[in-house]
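Notebook entry, cofactor series.
This is the third protein in the set we're modelling with a bound small molecule. For this one the ligand is zinc ion. I'm keeping the input format identical across the series so the outputs can be compared line by line later. Sequence and SMILES below, as received.
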Amino acid sequence: MAEQKLPTRAEDFSEWYNQLVLRAELADYAPVRGCMIVRPYGWALWENIQAALDARFKATGHVNAAFPMFIPHSFIEKEKAHVEGFSPQLAVVTHGGGKKLEEPLVIRPTSETIIGHAYAKWIQSYRDLPVLINLWNSVVRWELRTRLFLRTLEFFWQEGHTAHATYEEAQAETLRMLDVYTDFARNEAAVPVIPGRKSESEKFAGADVTYSLEAMMGDTKALQFCTSHNLGQNFAKAFEIRYLDPTGVLQHCWTTSWGLSSRVVGAIIMVHGDDQGLILPPRLAPFQAVVVPIFKNDDEKGAVVPAAKKVLESLTAAGIRTRLDAREGLTPGFKFNDWEMRGVPLRVEIGPKDVAKQSVVLARRDRPGKEGKSFASLEGLADTVTKLLAEIQAALYQRALAFRDAHTVEAGDYSQLKAGVESGFVLAYWCGRAACEERVKEETKATLRCVPLEQSGEGRCVVCGEAAREKGVFAKAY
Ligand SMILES: [Zn+2]
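Returned structure with ligand:
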């Protein structure tokens, strides 16, 4: 399998992605169109993503809970914008236990409504606030065009739902979680992201304001990495989430929600991967190092395999996720290609000469060929590997950042914008009007990805020429 070549990214980025997901055994197609089977290697990657996020959520005061996947259909209709946004994507259950249900059930496309129902019961007083709950679950949205990890009918994610006494607290929470995601993206996934605000037309159905992180993929298209919404009092009013303030007055709460999904696996593939396959950031890789013993006969095997096992033990003891590839009947070259395709950040080669010299060869996945190879002594190997993994992690981020910078232009006029979105991100002034945003979308197929939080100066709208105080990021997107 690993010896069949993948299409190159330059030839066909989309096909490179599809084949890689299948061949690296991250996921497989399901019998129901648009659904996804996540295989153990893909799930291990997702578990590491979950662990990195979950620790951050807990460190910022959040707790986990579980809510039902079935939601009464009437709930979805309670918030006007929410129902308009989600109706076309709903999966509805009409029968249960062989009988037609009195009220159809919706399979959750997101949980704001059922959360609203519960929070209305749980919250009575200002003393009950804030409520800071996160859910790890899967949701269903009936998408028409689907791709493994990037857009599937059912996908895996977390959704945070919080309730607060004031607008200011809710807004602070919305931005705090965007910061948490930014930290995760940069330091765990090694993905450079642009934190920003969504336009009115791109915001979440039912939110006052939506913020997102936008990342550039290896084909220069944008991908929305995650979102964080300030829901204002929209759901609090629809579901009567109220509290008695310290003066005894009944007030509506202010709520937020924020989510990051398994499409981030797709982002990691498309940001870091090369023509040989995946390149996984060490902090999230299911295996950070793979040990490959090299021998030609039983004598050599007798010396090499025990030494390889010792390497496995010492790296594992140091907390490095390590795999020993002791598979019989496969050449070292086949194994090298196989693990390169699966994106393991570091390969540890050990042959008879290495055993004699009490050393190993280390091969970096992010730098193929001789350039990425070095000798390392068995003594202190775990330290050497730990340092090298940190270097690889940093190098992946820097490479992705350099790539994004090289494919981002500032457009002073509309023709520059039109040209720029053909090969990356365009930063340009925007007056804030939906008409200008819409014209870009219609004429270039690029969308306003976000209005970055970091802004300076003012200028003229790239579309209409009116005064503008903010720049937007325009790009074609997944
Ligand atoms: Zn304009």
